[in-house]
Amino acid sequence: MSIPKTFLAILLSISIANSSTPLNINNDYNKTIEIAKKENKPIFILFTKSECPWCKKLKSKLFSTEEIYKRLQDEYIVLFLDKEKDKYPQKYKIQAVPTVFLISPTEEIYTQIIGYHKKDRDYLKWFNYVKIERE
Prior knowledge:
The protein is of the alpha/beta class. Helices cover 44% and strands 19% of the residues. Strand 4 (99-103) and strand 5 (109-114) form a beta hairpin.
């Protein structure tokens, strides 16, 4: 019986297959805000918990759907936070995981997405909304 790859190894292999430039994933809220301000890009925050199957499914979608991956890579600073372990401002009221927040570099919340959404167009619609809000 073969030993399954770790989730991180799977994500790394998918990201390399999807792009010559792997997606940079941050895990520190304050440092991510600094980067977003410097690069003047919105932030994609994914709140998860380690044992959440829907969180794993959403991460897989983000890395395996070419258009979503490319938009994250080009247009966002990406931040993954564990709801129970990581530090972040209390203004993020996480009722369920996975939860995504799309925020400005100045921490203005554009939108909140609760749960796993099956359709790619849902994520692309939210990305387009942020793009319009930034114009």
